[in-house]
Amino acid sequence: MNSIAAKFFSFILKNNQNRISQEEARNNMKNDKNILLIDVRSPREYKQAHIPRSKLIPLDKLEREAEKKLSKERTIYVYCHTGMRSKRTVKILQNKGFEKVFNIGGMNTWIYEKEYNSKV
Predict the structure, then answer these.
(1) Which residue, of 9, 40, 48, 119, is most buried by count of CB atoms within 10 Å of its CB?
(2) Is CATH 1.20.1250.20 what the domain over 19-116 is classified as, yes or no?
């Protein structure tokens, strides 16, 4: 039973790497204006509502544009609607050599400031 529990906790830790809570992300962004916040949803989703200061780079364009638009020196926070696309984004960016990239989950659980009906 101990080995099963150990494997389970190892799996949980591995799959939560580079994941931080939205509360921690919000506090960090208030204190560090150099953190880059990326929304990987579609332009339509972004226009409906997004987190202030976020930059839209849809997941389907990210792989082509990451090295042109992003700095490997900056801390990057990524979000989407539910956290699944942002989880994939973290892996993509890590494979491209970005080390300071974190998944903050989705807009569906973001309880803080939002901007609505913005131009893309």
Answers:
(1) 40
(2) no
